[in-house]
User: Fold these one by one.
Assistant:
Number 1:
Amino acid sequence: MFVDTHTHLDASKFEEDIDLVIHNALEKGVEIMMMPNVDPSTHQGMMSVHMKWPDNCLPMIGIHPCSVKKDFKSQIEWVKREVALGKYYAVGEIGIDLYWDTSLRKEQEECFRSQVELAANHQLPVNIHSRESIDLCIEHIEDLKKSNPELTGIFHCFTGTAEQAKRIVDIGGFLMGIGGVLTFKNSNLKEAIREISLDYIVLETDAPYLTPHPYRGKRNEPAYIPFIAQSLAELYELPLAVIEERTTENALRIYKLTH
């Protein structure tokens, strides 16, 4: 069994064939698909998928950094109300994005910290978006971990350096989500994680984005997780079955799932 720890099944690119997409994933052994939330506008679509596939498609709740507004405190209140309902497996997708727009950097940082603390208070892991901000996100997590020692989570779509990977390992309780970028010929990711124990690795697609080779350029979907796993198997010089078992164990542990 595989786990896709980050897939946007509510995306518009899946509207016409979501049932087939999930069927294809199950056929490839991808039995659990974790769905990050972006903001209130994506919530209903995500929950609709979850309600139809309650054992396979599991929801998170949070405000994506690109959705953070000036009045982010009202957004936080919405997340708090949803978390209190107790039907989510993580707080995510949260973080800091300095690629698209830096004008709300301060608000992004404050919103990120508030959501991390909320997750810690509810014993939920966090799913972190850190585009062009990985050092900054690591710094915030290192700081928040001091007062929230039980805090855990995943640095989604990790594409950092070996040094950044080691810092994440040293935090304790945090993993790196490895996706399609690992399969790209020009990727430096292999060198970054080569010395990192599999204990700190989980698989993800970020579907419909970041499609792995050999389907790069087309729509991504959870059924492509085995291509990422195969690339990891070649990197670690281990059988595919070992990658499948170890990354699945990591995902089940971080999301507190039994299967």
Number 2:
Amino acid sequence: MTRFAIRPLNTAILLLGALAGAGAMAADPVTDAMQQAYGPYRVALFRTNSNAQEESQQAISQAKKSWDSLSTQFGTKPPAPYDRDAKFAASLAQVSSVYAKAAEQIGANQLTAAHETLEQARDIMAELRHRNQVIVYSDHMNAYHAEMELMLGHGPELLGKPGGLQQVTASAGALNYLAKKLTSEAPATYAKNEEFVGLVTATDKSVNDLLAALYAQDASAAKAAIGKLKMPYSKLFLKFG
């Protein structure tokens, strides 16, 4: 039996719950700088997933520039809460290495490989924040993304197996929980942004459509709904993730 939803959901709940309990929010210079540098990173991820080499080269160049600026400013002496993190400088260097490798792959027009390489930077940044009890909206986006990728990778196959419809329904419940967090945990500035509201509503609808198909025990409709999960999330992530 493939129980592909249980570990990621538990991990997401424990991570977000622990951080929320700590009351840590993005309000320090390093986290703010990381969030600024995250914008170009998101563009690089999006472009490498869109078969656009020239745009990917421009995006990775901007991402590297933003991260280099952050590393230069804070690499040797970060302020609180990162000032006691012995691995802080190493984490910054790891992200830089990811960007360098991705840039080489983009230059060789290996965009799929570059996209997978860039995914590593997201995990490094998230772990860096986690170690220092900092939570930002991107962490909720990442938790949803992890569960969505599992659904995309395993859901269609499971639907064709005995008991698969029930397993996918359980996983869709996890995805639905994380989708609701994208609205409930949104910064106030996002909640007042019409574009954000439209994009997050579309993401939530894609999950609801999947649930409706699963509740109707319509495997064919559920498979089609799974195929429609990624696009609304990608648009939300690119602008607000």
Number 3:
Amino acid sequence: MKTVRRNQQNLEDSAIRQTLQEFRHALLDLHKALIDSERAVYEVDVGPVQSPHHFFQLLTNDPWFAWLRPISQLIVVIDEVLDAREPLTNDTIDAVIMESVFLLVPAKGEGDFSARYLAALQRDPAVVLAHAQVAKRIPPGKPRA
């Protein structure tokens, strides 16, 4: 009986991990779309990015790109959850997804992130498509991004 229960828990954990990994992948695609979109605006408003190293420095240190850090941090949280040794529960994935929804619903958020995210959604179809892929991975019954 213990073996059956353990196998069922392993199957549930695998399904939850798969769901979270798919969500993470969609979030990574959205993050990249936002970075690309913001880089294009930066280059028009400020000037060209000189090299990949220069761009990395801008992403990590320049206030222009600081608004993207909440998504970067959310991806790190998901990585930490996926790397945890203990089995994942639906409550864990719900908490991560709800944090994502809170972040990615511009009308409900406040501050620089929400305003800049909404602007990116309005100017860049790639961001809209990536946003839709994240929203598609939110389980039924949860608020949508």
Number 4:
Amino acid sequence: MVIRFILIATVVLALAGPPCGEATSPTGNTASRLIPVQTPSGTVIQAEIADTPQKRATGLMYRDHLKKDHGMLFFFDQPQEWTFWMKNTKITLDLIWMDEKKRVIHIERNVPICTRTDDSCPQYRPNDGAMFVLEIAGGTVDGYKIEKGSKLQFTQP
């Protein structure tokens, strides 16, 4: 009975959100590490790191907004044609796939939100293997002078 109560209390606290005063990232996640990503225009994007299966699966889902100079950088162990979709994502995004040399191999601009309740949201993927994917606010990729073949600069955690 005591173990059951502790488990229920833990779940309730987890669903209630961060404790008062806990640090949150500019995009709303708690305890997220940010790394700077320098774009060809010289602008630096502060990116949350998505380097675990859970972080990659959740991505920017359920967020109400994303600052123009913030994003999420997905790290993968091997190059593949990683597929992304917008299920439960409330903000339009630009998606940027990069190879192991951090060179842009594919871009999807202004990917719209998907409000479907089933799993039929459109999927987006490159034609070549990618090691990294950067998600940024929709409509900002061109202002950063990011195009296919350009290189982004960041260090891997």
